[in-house]
Structure formats: structure tokens, C-alpha cells
Amino acid sequence: MIPPPTVASAPSVWRDGAWRPGHRLVAEETPIALSYNRLSHAVMFATPADLADFALGFSLAEGIVDHPGQIGRLDIVTPGEGVELRMTIDHALMARLETRRRRLAGATGCGLCGLESLDAAMRPPPRVGAAPDWSAKAIEAAIAVLRPHQVLGRETHATHAAAFWTEAEGLVALREDVGRHNALDKLRGALAVRGVDVSAGIVALSSRISVELVQKAAGMGAGLVVAVSAPTALALRTAKAAGITIAAVARDDGFELYRP
Predict the structure, then answer these.
(1) Which of the residues 60, 110, 152, 200 is marked catalytic?
(2) pLDDT per residue over 33-58, tens digit each?
(3) Is 110 annotated as catalytic?
(4) Where are the catalytic residues (predicted)?
(5) Number of domains in the chain
């Protein structure tokens, strides 16, 4: 069964110095595998709506077909986790696709480079250790360090940032990139070189919280991720499975807290 594009969620909201119950509609994201003649080609996380349009648009954008009539059939199936868009194309197009696959280096900034199966996309996240019971002040301080230190973002208005903050040191490291996944990978590398215990601090992101970012945060051992925008429903489910607390929509006036 394909999940609905939005689902209701009830975070604890910190606003104007006080906790209160909250309500938010969070966008759904689902791993979607695209296959041609039953050969898996790519997996993308996407909103599970207008899937026939997505199948055709992706095929045209990637140069797999040249016009809609070249897709002989499209079946939308739900084999378990996620959705598979099964398309049929003729032998000449399939030969062209297989040649292209041998040259494919991976798409930039997608967070799913090289993945061809739903199982790989939906691998269970590692469980993180018990995180400190962070105060609202600490969460506000962690997100506040982002903007003043986004040098490339300030100059270009075209990059994301990922930062690590602790109460003892404040900002430990911040990395920027045009891709939010790349920024977090850069941060992980910087912390690994220094031997930093990520469970002892807060990971702060300048983006929305998608499932790929939660998976990466779990791999780092982060117990709390704070971000300026909202999470997706799948990100929240993945965070719960990993034991990660999410502080989302973190702005000057507060944030929303999603506990595992």
C-alpha cells in the first residue's frame, strides 16, 4: 500500500520559553525503485504521489527514452518497503541503457548514489547510545551557530551547512556544500579525523530532515539532530528506530521536538 503524501504528527513545541503540545502535517517520503524490463536502475526517495508522471519524467530526464510512447508499459507495485515503478522498453533502448549504466558514475547530491534496490535504500539504521537530556537553551544555542559561520552560504546563497556543537566547546566544526548530504559527510570526516565523540554533542543542519540525513546521523552516533526545517514522516520513523531525537523547525522563536 502506498502511504499518503502527508501524515499527522504531534511534537512537543518550545515557543516563547515554554513547552506546549503541537501538531504538524509532515510530508511522506518513500523509497521508489525505477526498473526497466525488470532490471533495477535506481532508487530515489520521493513523495508517493503522481508516480506515473515521475516514472516518465525521470526516464526522459535521464535520456532513457526520447518520448512517452517509448515506454510500453508501466506497473506500479508495492513489494513491501517502498514502491517499484516497472517499465518496459524495447531492446534497442535497453541496449542503450545498459551501455549508459556501464559509464554511470553516480548522480550528485542525491544521497542514494549507487543504490539499485529498495532493501539497500531501507537498510535498518544502527541504534545510537543514550543521548544527554539536552535543555531547550542548548538546542537553541546549537542552531544559532549555523548562520554566522556559513561563510560560503553567505557569499553564494546556494549551499547547506552541517555543524557539530557541544556545551563545553560551542561550535566544534562546520562544513558547507551545495548538497545537504555532502555537507553532513564532510562534517563526519572532519570529526572523525579529530576523534570526536559525536554522541556528546548536537548535530545542526541548515536543511529539512530527510531519511538519508537521519541514516547518516545514526551512522555517526548522533543522539540529537536539530534543523531549521521540518522532517519527513519517514525521517521521523527512522529516527525513532535509531533512538535519535529530532528538533525541527528550529528558529529564533523555538523549535519542535520529536522524541524516539
Answers:
(1) 110
(2) 999 999 888 888 888 888 999 999 88
(3) yes
(4) 110 (cysteine persulfide intermediate)
(5) 2
